Amino acid sequence: MLMNGAQAVLESLKKEGVDIVFGYPGGAVLTLYDAVYQMKFPHVLTRHEQGAVHAADGYARATGKVGVVFATSGPGAGNLITGIATANIDSVPLVCITGQVANPYIGKDSFQEADIVGITTPITKHNYLVKDVHDLPRVLKEAFFIARTGRPGPVVVDVAKDVFDTKFDYKYPENVTLKGYDGQYPTDEKAVDKVAKLLVKAKRPLLFVGGGVTTSDTTPLVRKLQEGLGVPAVSTLLGLGCIASETEGFLGLAGMHGSYASNMAIQQCDLLLCLGMRFSDRVTGKIKDFAPKAKIVHFEIDAAEVGKNVPVNLAVPGDLRASLPLLVTKLEAMDAGFRDQFAPWLQHAIDMSREHPFGYIPATGPDDVIHPGELIEQVSKLSGDDTIVVTDVGQHQMWAAQFYDAREPRQFITSGGLGTMGFGLPAALGAKVGKPGQSVVLITGDGSIMMNCQEFATLADNDIDVKVIVVHNFILGMVGQWQRLFYHHHYAQSELKGKTDLVKLAESMGCKGARLTKAGDLVTKLPQLLQEKGTVLIDVYVPEEEDVLPMVPGGKRLDQMVLAKGEEK
Amino acid sequence: MKKFLLAVLVDNKPGVLTHVAGLISRRAFNIESISAGYTEEPDVTRINIVVSVESEQELSQVVNQLGKLIDVIKIVNLTLEDSIERELVLIKVQASKESRADIINVVNIFRANIVDVTTEDVVIELTGGESKIDALCEVLREYGIIEIARTGAIALSRGPIPVKSM
Lengths: 569, 166
Prior knowledge:
The structure holds 2 protein chains of 2 kinds.
Chain A: E1 2-4, H1 5-15, E2 21-23, H2 30-39, E3 43-45, H3 49-63, E4 67-71, H4 75-78, H5 81-89, E5 94-100, H6 116-120, E6 126-130, H7 136-148, E7 154-160, H8 161-165, E8 167-169, H9 189-201, E9 205-209, H10 211-215, H11 219-229, E10 233-235, E11 250-253, H12 260-268, E12 271-275, H13 281-284, E13 295-300, E14 314-317, H14 320-334, H15 338-355, H16 372-382, E15 388-391, H17 395-403, E16 412-413, H18 424-434, E17 440-445, H19 455-461, E18 467-472, H20 477-486, H21 502-508, E19 512-516, H22 521-524, H23 526-531, E20 536-541, E21 562-564, E22 567-568
Parallel strand pairs in A: 2-3, 2-4, 4-5, 5-7, 6-7, 9-10, 9-12, 10-11, 12-13, 13-14, 15-16, 15-17, 17-18, 18-20, 19-20
Antiparallel strand pairs in A: 1-8, 21-22
Chain B: E1 2-11, H1 16-26, E2 31-38, E3 44-53, H2 56-68, E4 72-77, E5 83-94, H3 97-109, E6 113-117, E7 121-128, H4 130-140, E8 145-150, E9 154-157
Antiparallel strand pairs in B: 1-3, 1-4, 2-3, 5-7, 5-8, 5-9, 6-7
């Protein structure tokens, strides 16, 4: 079929099942946008390219599909960088199609030229510069294949402007042939057998659920495994929701701001089954003393993650979709009475969890200040089982991880690895676009919300309904916490006691806003606000000097937690 | 520190060297030398990387991280195989009437070649292992080395089986 490169891009997107693009036009993509106009391709115009890429990321995390972004050359593509890096470190599938200056202008420092392939090489799973329209269909086919298979990740396709304009005979390839990548990740049955043997000998096994479980949609298997073995389980930030938080034996978040029970269980267990995780420094504490009594088994699709940070005793390679069914079947066939075998340990873990829950001092009356923990517990209570919670980055993110009851995977969306402030609002937007039938609540802070607050305009203009809860403490909370703890209480450039009125900010862009200042408001005002139609910014004042606790200070062992102010375990 | 020579077969496509170089710098790997060239297959480039690592774990990180690159087809650690390793060096040395005979002597002992001569200098070519090249450079230093160009090591396994089939 004869068409130009721009039309070929959109035809290819249709063939890949793409139902929406997030983007922002500009010089190098004018022809692409003309095709969007003519073909009426569904597109959300954000107010910043960074908003577009985070929106596509939120869409991808909520749906499991590939998020697609358009941006123009130079500054447009440059504004995607933080979002691409965010997606890359959290293994989120994106295809970013960026315009590049026309072929004759490449390498001449032309207007709006930047070497996007060079810039994005360290933060993408793969990238391409397309200079010949005949390469375009193959490259797009490969880009989607690479983004969504194996350990997913972002792929950048940089397209020279004249490629969009060139007519050619378009044909979309059926298959991908890449010599160095087939997207197949089989497991090793012998390794799975060894796991079964280790379980027979174990007394205190612990499941460690990572983001790979979310990504591979293997939640039902993991739940079956935990239930069948009768073992406690802990989670990384990106694994939250895979095991519903109220599940017996689920101890919650582990690591720097993890629960007492999670961190103690890691230090006490004799067998640690790690599923699709990468032993980030936020999770391990002092690496040398991480899980000192345990044989560590690492189920991992990415061979480069095995032994990267923490030495492991056994690696189970391949996709969790291959290894977990095999393990579950084998364990069921063994009928080894695991539940009885591990019952005392499970009880011990449950006891630890009951004795040391995440806590806060509850309000004593309706005029009392609002504690962030109480706020998030209330949001959690008011949320339906299918509500998607998105967070920004900082103290509110950790409180959300601690106090929000994540019930299903893909319903707790947060920037884990990169810790990107400004991720929340556009990601919530993207999640709502991807899952319009589910409520989306953003929990953010007064620092984070100002980064990408321009996306309130996108939410209003497209009638996208997100409830935005600002945990407003008039400080960059996590920075302030570290300054209190480790920098003699010097609030160096971290206070946000300005004149900004966040309610008016939301209203100015066509959204609604409300302010909650006392504990009683959580009961009298919050439920109605969450039921309103359309996007509402709920500005919740909380005290400034609240620490996120427990906390494992940098370089300390997981069992060296600060549990309450001035107290160290 | 131990050194290993990795034979890395990659797609002969634009951007490949960016990807390989980008990875090496991002992961802070210690690279002693890197050289690339065409192979018997027109769409495959062979990159020879000499990496220096502290531990087996570090070595496996280099191999696994390189292996993740989409355009990397195959990696073989030829230091762990029975293999032949060679490097080419060109050395420009000051050579006066008085010293030239001595230099020729040295060149003959090392079985190197003189490939260019002027009234003031000679250019010496030597192929060999790293230690032989280092030894020649050391001996020539007293005559005054003007400049050196080295290719970095390349290697092939012994026997009929190529890296791509290993």
